[in-house]
Amino acid sequence: MIAGVDLAAKPKNPTGICLLKSRNNYKLLTLYEDEEIIDAINENKVEIVAIDAPLMKEIRIREADRILKKYGAMPPTLPGMRMLTTRAIKIIERLNAITIEVFPTASAKILGIYDKDYRKMAEKLNIEPSNKHELDAYLAAYTGYLYKKGLTIEVGNKEKIIIPKID
């Protein structure tokens, strides 16, 4: 099973989770607290976690951030992104799975399904998320699914962001 996580910077804000067994066999959740997120992943025996959050110990602008800026990537040095990065590192240390960093907006654009209205993207994917966070979690999980199948590329130097292969 693959988990996609659209992590919020603060626990009071919604985090989207997608537990994906196959393209059409998935469960979408909106969670808040770190413990809920960790439990949802570890209790479902997830093997790959694809998380939409910068995964780095020292917060700075990486080569991957520069490359993905054309897709709308935010610099990790912004205050909100710093909080997100700190929270992500705390959470992934407690997960029993391989963790990869993904960028759902880039995935959607590369896959040709991007739309500013998340409901239109959900329609194209034939899924029914309750909110944008669940849609991004699905896109993160789907990127993890493509990663497992060898259909992705790594962007960046030391710290990599995984995106679908560009046709």
Mean pLDDT: 93
Instruction: Determine the N-to-C terminus distance.
Output: 26 Å
Task: Please give the share of residues in helix.
Answer: 25-40%
Tell me which CATH architecture applies here: 2-Layer Sandwich
Return residue spans where pLDDT drops below 50 for at least 5 consecutive residues: none
Largest sheet: 7 strands, mixed
Name the beta content range: 15-25%
Spatial strand order of the main sheet: 3-2-1-4-5-7-6
Number of DSSP-assigned strands: 7
- Helix/strand structural class: alpha/beta
- Whole-number count of domains: 1
Gross morphology? globular
Count helical runs: 6
The radius of gyration is 14 Å
Strand/helix succession: EEEHEHHEHHHEE
The CATH first-level class comes to: Alpha Beta
CATH topology: the name is: Nucleotidyltransferase, domain 5
Please characterize this protein's 3D structure.
The structure is a single chain. The protein has helices at 34-43, 63-68, 79-92, 104-110, 118-125, 132-148; strands at residues 2-6, 15-22, 25-31, 48-51, 98-102, 152-155, 161-164. It has 167 residues and is an alpha/beta fold. The chain has one domain (2-164): Nucleotidyltransferase, domain 5 (2-Layer Sandwich). A seven-stranded mixed beta sheet has the order 3-2-1-4-5-7-6. Helix 4 crosses helix 6 (132-148). The two termini are 26 Å apart.
